[in-house]
Amino acid sequence: MSALLLITLSLLVSGCSGGAWLARRSAGPVGVFNGNSRQEPALSGQGRFLASVVDRGGRATLLLQEQPSGRILPLRHFQNRQPHSSPSLSWNGRYVAALVQQGNQRLALIEDRANGNLHRLPLPADRTAVRLSLSPEARQLAVQVAQAGQWRVQLFDLRSLLEPDLPGGLAVQGGGAEPSP
Amino acid sequence: MPQPIVPLNSRLEAIGANRDPALSGRWLALISGRGGREQVLLLDLERQQPIDLPGLNRADAQPVSVSVDAAGERIALVRQLEGRTELVLYRRSVQSLQPIPMVPSGVARQVQLQADGRQLAVQVSRGGIWQVDLVQIP
Fold first, then answer.
1. A86 in a structural domain
2. Domain housing B41
3. Is B36 within 8 Å of chain A by CB?
4. What is the number of domains present in chain B?
5. Which residue from A123, A166, B43, B85 has the fewest beta carbons nearer than 10 Å?
6. Looking at this predicted complex, what is its ipTM?
7. B12 and A154 Cβ atoms separated by less than 8 Å
8. The model's pTM
9. A19 closest CB neighbour out of B5, B17, B99
10. Which of these, A77, A44, A33, A32, lies nearest to A172 by C-alpha position?
11. Which residues of B touch A20 (CB under 8 A)?
12. Do A14 and B101 count as a contact with CB atoms less than 8 A apart?
């Protein structure tokens, strides 16, 4: 049986499940970073921005890219404090949340790319943050913690801290203004 | 300073051990464990009630990663089933489950559905290297 016929048959069979025909692509190039490892993807609400964790000189580093171009966007507050993990984006990519290392603790940070401000979410010493999820409007943050030997998910209200990032709002391109005092 | 949402956190505490939260709009999807089994849970945060997900959870499957769109309609799930890892898309309104094969073949690990539900990003292992695929959802 020719190779072409085999390929055609396999496509037809896999197409019966509906999944093979979904349009798909690999996420854009990572430029100067080690392009061979990319983890923990997070998309903004309409897919204009993609955050992921890449290997940068042996350190897990948060990367923010415009899609589909793959253009790397600057993040003011995620240059250090590796390893980074668990990125999460708001609807228009205004807010970038992730876990970073501070001393011997994991710390949740939220960068406001519109004005350069940084927000920290300190946790009690008996809890270790493992994973987080920022709601698209940036009204809430869910954090998975290890507490007393169990996984727990805790929710935090961000409404007094962040302006909402609503659908249809302006996408923030650059690294934001100097942080406000 | 962000404030803990005490009523919801108490509700989550009562549910049991929870992990891998995915917030979107009024919905919180997570993986919840009880009695040695884990399953996908979808919470309506406004009503503070779990939502039934007929046809999504299986007793013989291990959920790995879950994500939900802002409408609470689509849930993307990576799960281990019968010795393999698969990515599936669940549509709540019709209670349908659609497998999404990895092309080229690979092992899915973590998935995130963008809030408008039109695309998902999945972390995939191919040849020992982690990659990210973007899949359009019709």
1. yes
2. 6-105
3. no
4. 1
5. A166
6. 0.95
7. yes
8. 0.89
9. B99
10. A44
11. 101, 103
12. yes
The whole-angstrom separation of Cα A91 and Cα A137 is 6
Q: In whole angstroms, give the CA distance from residue B121 to residue B109.
A: 11
Residues 6+ apart with CB under 8 A from B35: none
pLDDT tens over chain B, length 138 residues: 788 999 999 999 998 889 999 999 899 999 999 888 999 999 999 999 999 999 999 999 999 999 999 999 999 999 999 999 999 999 999 999 999 999 999 999 999 999 999 999 999 999 999 999 999 998
Instruction: Measure the CA–CA gap between A27 and A16, rounded to whole angstroms.
Output: 26
pLDDT at B119: 97
Q: Which helix (H) or strand (E) holds B33?
A: strand B27-34
Spatial neighbors of A38 by CB under 8 A, at least 6 apart, are A27, A30, A52, A53, A54, A63, B123, B130, B131, B132
What is the total count of domains within chain A?
1
The pLDDT tens digits for A35-72 are 568 999 999 999 999 999 999 889 999 999 999 999 99
